[in-house]
Amino acid sequence: MNNRNSIAIGSAVLLFVIGILLSLYAIGESKGYGIKSKQKSADLARVSNIAQQYADLNALVERNRGTYASAPQSQIPALGADIKVQTSVEKRIELGSGWGMRSIDVACDEIQPGNVFDFIDAAGKAVPPWKISKLSIIALPGGKSKAVMTLNSVEKK
After folding, report:
1. The overall pTM is greater than 0.70
2. Closest CA to 156 of 58, 59, 54, 66
3. How many CB atoms lie within 10 A of CB 6?
4. Helix (H) / strand (E) containing 139
5. Residue 104: its H or E element
6. Which one of 90, 128, 132, 136 is most buried, by most CB atoms within 10 A?
7. Where does residue 89 rank: exposed (0-12), middle (13-18), buried (19+ CB within 10 A)?
8. Alpha-carbon distance 147 to 36, whole Å?
């Protein structure tokens, strides 16, 4: 009988220790789930933000569909006869459903900085508008500047 009690007590102690070890292991593992959950929440918020931006852009396109479809190809605004402008070959990227993006590089070797911003303003007011995706302005001696920019415009064929 004494031997049976010893085995029963030993088994109970062993099960108790195993239970404590498993509990400690479970607590350690659960800490990682909280971090993963926070990362997933942040990822979900970013995806939701991108989806909202896409919805806003899609609404803008739908609102202006008639304007862009009926407008002729917008030309790059003139800078003036005394300003030398070099342009690259225009590229067109198909966006689907008859929509495309036109892209062109423009370089002005000697231009007043204020004229660069007047040009950007005029390009943005064209229908459809030209938007600046890249702009580099380098100061030259004598108050002039060299400007290099990439213009993009969306149009419907």
Report:
1. no
2. 66
3. 10
4. strand 131-139
5. strand 99-111
6. 128
7. exposed
8. 47
